[in-house]
Specification:
This is DUF58 domain-containing protein. Keywords: Membrane, Transmembrane, Transmembrane helix. It comes from Mesoterricola silvestris. With about 425 residues, the protein is an alpha/beta fold. The chain has two domains: about 5-165, no CATH class; about 235-414, Rossmann fold (3-Layer(aba) Sandwich), CATH 3.40.50. It has eleven helices and 17 strands.
Length: about 425
């Protein structure tokens, strides 16, 4: 521990506490002693006694709570965006009503922790997927006035796996055209590949394919889609490049894996993780990729998949540009497999607020995507023969041909 940190823990006075002590000392010397102001003399002494008493009480409470804190399971399975109990507990005593206790995790950083009263049970809200071998917490104990504070670090050999949330999508409409046959009749003349199947209407679908009679009866829009051709469906693999804004494609990846939408004999890969061919290994790879920082392993993944007999790859991409773009473009230029680029986004980014709104309102986090940026990525990544699909995990829309929809939305946003 550094000397300054050790001194701070031994004398648990915050900046506000030192400021109050300095003000009380100045008032005591210049007004109380110098001008014999008995009111300020008594007030300055009471202020110093208050800070000293709160400091001693904070130290004593921290020692008691540190001895009694602890607990938790052998491993943690958490989910982004969901408050979950961890089993760790800091028992808060009702006879110490002036205390406030805060807990924070050192890693991963994008995680909120809270102690629920009156039990003192820890609940956490992860913001990004991760795989950590152990958990290190920082517990801070202070008074409600903010004059004194101390704390300790609690390290537990508890591995934690944080997975992204599942995407609430219709399994019958999700990526229905990624691994089907060609949209053409069979060479032998059998009626295969015609538009005889149906699914729910999504933005960007051609209006001429809507079943208007069904809509008139049920007020629900369905469109015709081609059935599977007689060609055998290829073995499908999926890959997720790491990116700071890749939570939407990570959520979609978990949905595809857990619902079995990749078909039999699938494989999953991600930046910074080993290839996986079973659900448990894929979950671990998905969690590990959240802290990889991007490794650009898509080209090597495609080559391994080609050698092992895979015929198609689903490339799960964010709706924002980043360091992943150049490695993915280079890999697609010589891709040995049929690749379908799937851009997953969590809604659309709202227009920038006016200066007056920015001055008086706290800005909201920018989770959505900009249509013009997605359209630019689509032009650079999804060049033939690479196909493209757009999935909005917030609304559930799945667009097989999103170019016209993106141009229209980009023009409306401008």
């Amino acid at each position: 521990m550094k000397p300054l940190a050790a001194l701070r823990e031994a004398f648990p006075v915050t900046f506000a506490g030192w400021a109050l002590l300095g003000l009380a000392g100045a008032a005591f010397w210049f007004q109380g002693v110098g001008r014999l102001d008995l009111v300020l003399l008594a007030a300055s002494v009471l202020a110093a006694v208050l800070v000293a008493g709160l400091g001693l009480a904070t130290l004593a409470a921290a020692l008691v709570l540190r001895r009694r804190a602890g607990g938790g399971p052998g491993s943690l399975a958490l989910e982004c965006g969901t408050w979950s109990p961890t089993g760790y507990r800091v028992p808060l005593s009702r006879w110490l009503p002036f205390l406030r206790v805060r807990v924070a995790w050192e890693a991963p950083g994008d995680l909120r922790a809270d102690l629920r009263l009156p039990s003192g049970q820890e609940h956490v809200l992860p913001g990004r997927r991760a795989l950590v071998p152990s958990v290190t917490r920082t517990v801070r104990v202070g008074d409600i006035l903010g004059l004194t504070e101390t704390g300790w670090r609690a390290q537990a050999p508890t591995p934690a796996r944080i997975l992204p949330r599942r995407a609430a999508l219709d399994p019958g409409a999700v990526l229905s055209g990624l691994v089907r046959g060609e949209d053409q009749t069979d060479p032998r003349g059998e009626p295969q590949g015609d538009r005889v199947d149906i699914r729910k209407y999504g933005h960007g679908d051609p209006l001429r394919m809507i079943l208007w009679k069904v809509y008139a009866r049920t007020r629900k829009a369905f469109v015709r889609i081609p059935e599977r051709a007689v060609e055998p469906a290829p073995r499908v693999c999926a890959y997720l490049p790491a990116h700071p804004w890749d939570e939407p494609p990570a959520r979609l990846a978990r949905t595809l894996l857990e619902r079995g939408l990749l078909g039999p004999g699938w494989r999953f890969g991600a930046d910074g993780a080993e290839d996986a061919e079973d659900l448990e290994g894929a979950r671990e790879a998905l969690a590990r990729s959240g802290s990889s920082g991007g490794a650009g392993g898509f080209a090597a993944f495609l080559e391994r998949a080609r050698r092992d007999g895979f015929g198609a790859c689903i490339l799960l991409l964010p709706g924002r540009d980043g360091p992943w773009t150049a490695p993915v473009q280079a890999a697609l230029a010589t891709a040995p497999l049929r690749v379908q680029a799937v851009f997953a986004l969590d809604g659309w980014r709202e227009p920038a607020p006016s200066p007056w709104r920015r001055a008086f309102l706290r800005p909201e986090p920018e989770d959505g995507a900009a249509p013009e940026e997605v359209l630019d990525l689509l032009g650079r990544i999804a060049a033939p023969p690479t196909g493209a699909t757009l999935v909005d995990i917030r609304s559930g829309d799945v667009l097989d041909h999103p170019e016209a929809y993106l141009r229209k939305r980009a023009g409306r946003a401008a």
